[in-house]
Specification:
- The protein is mostly beta strands and 175 residues long.
- It has two domains: 70 residues, no CATH class; 89 residues, Immunoglobulins (Immunoglobulin-like, Sandwich), CATH 2.60.40.10.
- It has one helix and 13 strands.
- Strand 11 and strand 12 form a beta hairpin.
- The chain is elongated and about 100 Å long.
Length: 175
């Protein structure tokens, strides 16, 4: 009877260790551009290639680079979407300040940059992130567009044109 429990315990232990190491991990970006890891696939998620390792680690000798977070099979159909301000939004700021944000899908690659266009002209230099803070924007209608630029300087994706209206109060000081 004791042998029966020992064999059963070994079979269950081996089964759980096999199941634990055969799981898949998926990575995607949420609306804010943050990495999200999951054990369930979704349309925008990419499978993460895990290095084969033993499921049991000594308590003082943990190999920290366990995940290789570079997704496999990444496609190159990039999409840039301006998320703030919304198209046709009216912004009320007497200093003329505007925060512009965008998302890049599927995942922005290292070495890529984002160029902001304001009213058809480049605004400053390309940068590695999708958040721009503009100051002293004149009253009236403005149009923005963002372009994703690869390592060679080629534009590989563009956002849709977004229009916003800057409302700045005028103070008359006639005495």
């Amino acid at each position: 009877m004791l042998n029966y429990f020992i064999i059963l315990f070994l079979v269950i232990s081996l089964t759980f260790s096999v199941l634990a190491t055969s799981s898949k991990v998926y990575v995607s970006h949420d609306e804010d551009g943050l990495l999200v890891f999951s054990d369930r696939p979704s349309p925008e998620a990419e499978e993460v290639r895990l290095r084969p390792k033993s499921a049991i680690y000594p308590s003082m000798n943990i190999d920290t680079p366990l995940f290789d977070i570079r997704p496999t099979g990444l496609n190159n159909d990039f999409q840039v979407v301006i998320t703030q301000p919304k198209n046709n939004a009216t912004l009320r700021d007497n200093t003329g300040s505007v925060n512009i944000t965008a998302t890049v899908k599927p995942i922005i690659k290292e070495g890529f940059s984002i160029q902001l266009y304001l009213d058809g002209k480049t605004h400053n230099n390309p940068q590695s992130h999708t958040i721009f803070s503009l100051k002293n924007i004149d009253r009236g209608e403005h149009q923005i567009l963002m372009a994703l630029i690869d390592k060679k300087g080629k534009v590989i994706a563009r956002s849709s044109l977004t229009t916003f209206y800057m409302h700045r109060a005028i103070v008359n000081s006639h005495f």
